[in-house]
């Protein structure tokens, strides 16, 4: 297969713009492609289902989540590793993906997105006939 | 072009920003266990009544998380098993943590190791350790 890099490339410039406007954590992701589409897993611990937003704008996939830890009142932080209460990551979808049929599943802080390939990009086996 | 400065005004600001981003991503010197801070990431906070530890460990089966308190140390351990890629699948990005993990934090002296609650919600393990009643100021009678 050729052009793997462009199948799902990150838009660094867009991310940077977003980062300047509002700082956000970059959630780690796994992206796996099979014959019928792409599966994306993103770690968004601390985001409630209501605080999660998955959007497709044109060929851009945007993942956003707001951290909600329900901290007890009057808590003083003594050690902080997760210091920004927001996640954000942006991807560019390639044209053979059917962005209208994205399905999302969220459980225990892990988002699982399934983006199928468009009909015309599905693999087809061509029968070879011998006369 | 002729009069363009070799040092555009915001160059240093850009370098500083890059440095900040690097620091944030790398977090200083790496630890002997490989990671910069280890997995899972942790936040610790205190209130008058409790010490609260938040471990960011998404995608876990709550039963496979282990929380232990021993000698004033709180240990959180477990194993994360990610869904394996199917046959003939191509992995383009592989960033999420997988495998066994263990992290230990030391607790203040005034905690009550018998009054601990642990809850797992949205991929965050919250361990709340109660603190002992603050020692009351007592008047000592003079005999």
Walk me through this protein's architecture.
The complex is a heterodimer of chains A (131) and B (143). Chain A is mainly β. Chain A has a domain at 27-68 and 83-121: Immunoglobulin-like (Sandwich). In chain A, 11% of the residues lie in helices and 46% in strands. Chain A contains 2 helices and 9 strands; from the N terminus they run αβαββββββββ. In chain A, the strands form 2 sheets. Chain A has a 4-stranded antiparallel sheet with strand order 1-7-5-4. A 4-stranded antiparallel sheet of chain A has the order 2-3-9-8, with no helix packed on it. In chain A, strand 8 (103-107) and strand 9 (110-116) form a beta hairpin. The longest helix of chain A has 10 residues, at 12-21. Chain A is elongated. Residues 1-8 of chain A have low confidence and may be disordered. With 143 residues, chain B is mainly β. Chain B folds into 2 domains: 8-37; 39-82 and 98-133, Sandwich (Immunoglobulin-like). Chain B has one helix at residues 11-26; strands at residues 41-46, 50-56, 66-70, 73-80, 90-94, 99-106, 111-121, 124-131. Chain B has a 4-stranded antiparallel sheet, with no helix packed on it. Chain B starts with 10 loop residues before the first helix and ends in a 12-residue tail after the last strand.
